[in-house]
Amino acid sequence: MANLHGGQIVARALAKEGVQFVFTLCGGHIMSIYDGCIDEGIRVIDVRHEQTAAHAADGWGRVTGQPGVALVTAGPGLTDAVTGVATAHRAKAPMVIIGGQAPRAFQDMGGLQDMNHVELMRPITKWSVAVPDSRRLGEYVATAFRIATTNVPGPVFLEMPLDFLFDNVDEERVVSPTKYRTEAGIAGDPEYIERAFEVIRKAERPVCLVGSQYWWSRRREAYMPFLDTFGMPTFVNGMARGSIPPEHPYGMTLARKDALRKSDCVLIFGTPLDFRIGYGRSSHIDPEAKIIQVDLDGGEIGRNRAIEVGLIGDTGIIMEQLTQAAKKSGYQKDLHKAWTDDIRRIDAEKRAAHDPEMTSNASPVNPVRACAEIDAVLNEDSIVIGDGGDFVGTAANVLRIRKPGHWLDAGPLGTLGAGPGFAMAAKLAKPKSDVIIVYGDGSFGLNGFEFEAMSRQKINVVGVIGNDAAWQQIKRGQVQIYGPDRAIACSLDFTRYDKVAEALGCHGEYVEKPDDLRPALKRALAADKPAVVNIKIGTSEFRKDAISV
Known about the structure:
Layout: E1 3-5, H1 6-16, E2 21-24, H2 31-40, E3 43-46, H3 50-64, E4 68-72, H4 76-91, E5 95-101, H5 117-121, E6 127-130, H6 137-149, E7 155-161, H7 162-166, E8 168-170, H8 190-202, E9 206-210, H9 223-230, E10 234-236, H10 256-262, E11 265-269, E12 290-295, E13 309-312, H11 315-329, H12 337-353, H13 355-358, H14 367-377, E14 383-387, H15 390-398, E15 407-409, H16 419-429, E16 435-440, H17 441-447, H18 450-456, E17 462-467, H19 472-482, H20 497-503, E18 507-511, H21 517-525, E19 531-536
Parallel strand pairs: 2-3, 2-4, 4-5, 5-7, 6-7, 9-10, 9-11, 11-12, 12-13, 14-15, 14-16, 16-17, 17-19, 18-19
Antiparallel strand pairs: 1-8
């Protein structure tokens, strides 16, 4: 039998999981894994900051449903990646991050970049562990994938010491597990399914909110039959964006606050009662409304708000179970047709109220008009990444995403700078899709140099910057609370980021007039290289009361 070095053992284990790409910034501790990846046909994508490597691994998981992989060197290589891992942890996205370490033989002797990685990563991962032996490198990779994808998804960290990665092991001594994980989902307790259905059946004004766990469901096909059976107003967030076609009769966007405040029964699928819905308090949901909460994590059920029925399980499977209960009982969705029509009317009125800004000819460009122009160049397969604050907040309400997994944002951690990593992963996973990063000008500055990495590796994405020369989401709050003369540390310049992109080998466009925007976007999408469209934007009434704290 042949000898394998540790990097080859790791790469074989990754290939066994179907890994096509790994994301990295080069480091001496992990270079043997690169060598193994060459043998296994795994493409190594290098970035300019380890944060982006982690974001790309996270993004791969969000687009494909399978864990992405980041490789980082020890010490600052790993600490640079912490923000990306924490973003995935808060968003419950699967990823595997492999970090180098000084040789185990020299542990506690002051090796280069030696630090306690495992304890650092433990609070922001599902599992953080140091591999104990070179023979078991592949076994630990297999276990990492099992843990990252089981029940609630999330990131896993493996520390691999340098001497293990360079060690040579007889192939027959390598631990290579088989049949070590399942794709089975979790069904809801039948008794609690009946309880939940009874609450829905008696409701006059039911509302449904579907979150990211829909995307990880083993029964996503149960979603549309569920909507058609119950016919209630349905809103989405997180990775569920795009799961309801824009023209669907029960999918709505702008009337969520009105619906939740008026509803007597709220079904919450796979999203926490966190700040995004006011922690379930009376400011956002009628205090008399009965809550049915579905989550893969039983610890989330009942957090921040008393619930009527809690169901632990897979969103799609429980939708399927509720649909079956409704059909068995002869449930009639038309009983609350007037309620659904009322929320649909409110939703349409709110959207129509923004029509003047969507068609505004103001220069600099109105942010809502800018987003309407972006929407006009999207097609069914376009993937949009939101990386910013105020401009992305506008885009999230204006852009019509056609498919699940085709809208990516940092999620509840609110991380800026995730855009390039998400976009690189999305384009590699879906090479035929247009991939567009909707940027704030502030967020572009965090990891904008990744456009060099994209240009060099021919990963053609388009960044669209809403440039108002400010960290507007924060500046607005400062002005409203303290006054315009005391709004500090939140102003920028109208920088020509398009020129920066050109210097990095990309296509650049600068736009000040609304009629010039759509042609510029089309040229960027057709440029056959990464591109940045830098839009000088003005002000809008769309988010005038939005304060981020």
